[in-house]
Write a structure and sequence with these properties.
mainly alpha, two-stranded parallel ribbon, 5 strands, about 140 residues, about 50% helix, Rossmann fold, globular
Length: about 140
């Protein structure tokens, strides 16, 4: 399962980012491909929160951001992945083994969810290397 991090989702729609063309192409490919794509509420929430931030010159209107999410969720390959009964044990391990504090708790949550569902996290954030057992790829380095 492909689990996209919010940063790739944001880059895909950020017309001011140099990463936009490759992130947009990558997102279109996975949403049209055969492999399941696991969206988390963490990544969806971060996409909406950051892409609609009025302090950004190129922010999206809320109606546009929510329409984008609606489109993702209607794709045949998309699954919503949510924590199951064993999530706390995985998360606790990520928090301790990853030496997590403060804002990186969200990263630990995303790592734990990805592991819980046997997925591979796709992210442009190298900080995820801190989490043992997490498989991750930066698709912008290989495209």
């Amino acid at each position: 399962m492909i689990v996209p991090d919010a940063n790739l989702l944001i880059y895909a729609y950020d017309s001011k980012s140099d990463l936009q063309p490759s992130a947009s192409r990558w997102l279109r490919q996975i949403l049209s491909g055969p492999d399941p794509v696991g969206f988390t509420w963490l990544s969806i929430g971060a996409f909406v929160r950051i892409s609609t931030n009025l302090t950004l010159r190129n922010h999206l209107p809320m109606a546009v951001a929510t329409q984008i999410v609606d489109e993702w969720l209607t794709r045949r390959v998309v699954r919503l992945i949510v924590p199951g009964d064993g999530h706390w044990a995985l998360l606790r391990n990520m928090l301790i083994a990853g030496r997590v504090q403060g804002p990186t708790v969200t990263d630990a949550q995303l790592a734990a969810l990805t592991i819980e569902f046997g997925g591979i996290l796709y992210t442009a954030d190298r900080d995820f290397a801190r989490f043992p057992g997490l498989r991750w790829i930066n698709p912008l380095e290989i495209t």
